Amino acid sequence: MNKLSCEIVQDLLPLYYDDVCSPDTRKSIEAHLATCAECTAALRKLQQSSSLPFEVIAKNQQDSRALASFQGYWKRSRAVSFVKGLILATAVCGVLLTGYYALFSWNLTQVPASAIEITEVSRLQDGRIAYHVKLTDGYRLNKISAKAGSDGILYITPMRPVFKSKADEAQGLGNRYDVVDAGQLSTPSRSIKAIYYGPKDDHPILIWKQGMELPPASEAVEAQFERQD
Hints:
Layout: H1 6-17, H2 23-33, H3 37-50, H4 54-104, E1 109-110, E2 116-123, E3 129-135, E4 143-148, E5 153-160, E6 175-180, H5 182-185, E7 194-197, E8 205-209, H6 219-224
Parallel strand pairs: 5-7
Antiparallel strand pairs: 1-5, 2-3, 3-6, 4-5, 7-8
């Protein structure tokens, strides 16, 4: 190949640098570069503009790895935060739901004795004691708890949720006739000596105690509590 001029060599330098020229052209360019400082400088400039220093490449790779690591940590952190948030939300909902049922459904509070009216206490022919109970505060009665202590005293306690509701019917636990069998509740080691209606620590109403004579029950009450053999 004829000797190349600087203009031709500099036009061919990009092809030479990218290694896409023919072997003969490459040899001619290298022969020219060996004797031409100007074209050699042009090649260095081309190399510098087309490649990054090793330190820059290494730093970019390090930054890239750091970014990938941060992205992985961010994704893991978001996943962990989501799980923690889900657990926390479930716990809060559970507490709120439990609190709701505790306040509106669980019978945790005792009806005060001042709202209890006991009348028509009588004794059935089979020995059971009948009485009429009415709650005078107008709220619904949800549960009746009966417990006898070691002293033989039975306390019948009406119970309600913390947030009580109005009674929606004339008859119910808070307005009815009821019956208690002292003999059945007695045990060989403990006999029932007295029966009270209302909270033990709030002046409960005495229904019956040993030695108390009760009037016989009316026919209507007898018929209401007649046992089916």
